[in-house]
Amino acid sequence: MIRQHHLQFGQDTLIRVLGLATPLAFWEWASQTERVNSVFLPPPSDVIPTALDLLFTGTLNEHINVTLQQVGVSLAGTILVGVVLGVVISRSKLIAQLAEPLVYAIIAAPNIAFVGIFIALFGLGSEAVIAQGFVGGFPYVAINAATGMRQVDSTLVRVGQVFGATGWKMALKILIPSAIPPIVAGIRLAIPRVVNGVIAGQLFAGAVGLGYQLAFYGNYLDTKEMYGVVVWLAVLGVTANFAFSAVESRFASWQDR
């Protein structure tokens, strides 16, 4: 059984490596053979060393730290507001009818459309960037939380009522714990949207951060450095996705017990 598990893990790893290596090899070939203009799309053999140089020389340290902080604040607000709104939507038909169309409209709208609104409200700076990240993520947590709480066993709810659990006590003791797996799934969906929102906010409203650096290098046509920033954005996104996938699997196995 252990040997089979290791074999499966090795196969999965090989597939992931091939899935990454194949487009990189094609990209390298296209740039080196001048099928594409290497000024606008430099080969990975130039981009990856540049990305490492940006990191190890400390050029990106402040920008990475600021980006992580802004993503963290946006994600914390996303989870808090999303779960609270999910509770309210799941418990009130009237509020659900009022709020759900707006939430779905926010999901459907391109995230970049909110940049101008937040700049007008908060001006240039961190507040607009954090708000941009928040609006990209909270609808996914809210919808998943509301859906999960609506599916809570009615017997469990009645038992809670017998023991005097009503309102927010009911939510904290029964509804939220029972809906943890779909809430976690909603957070996983929200994470890349929060990251994308923060980067979009930094592009237009920030004076620091990876999004700001992306715009800075792009404006001066420093494409190797620009794609180097993209590399670290991809690393950030993939790391967050794998980390939260592990958390989601843990909660899924907990729910099945």
Descriptive overview:
The chain is mainly alpha-helical and 257 residues long. The protein has one domain: MetI-like fold. 84% of the residues lie in helices and 0% in strands. It contains eleven helices and no strands. It is elongated, with a radius of gyration of 22 Å.
Task: Enumerate the spans where pLDDT stays under 50 for 5 or more consecutive residues.
Answer: none
* First-to-last CA distance: 22 Å
Stated plainly, the CATH topology is called MetI-like fold
CATH class: Mainly Alpha
Q: Give the DSSP E fraction (strand runs of 2 or more residues).
A: under 5%
Average per-residue pLDDT, rounded, comes to 81
Q: Assign the CATH architecture.
A: Orthogonal Bundle
Radius of gyration (CA) equals: 22 Å
Major pleated sheet: none
- The residue fraction in helices comes out at over 70%
Which of globular, elongated, flat, extended, rod-shaped describes the shape?
elongated
Number of individual domains? 1
* CATH H-level superfamily title: MetI-like
Following the backbone from N to C, one meets helices and strands in this order, namely HHHHHHHHHHH
Note the total helix count.
11
**Number of strand elements:** 0
Structural class: mainly alpha
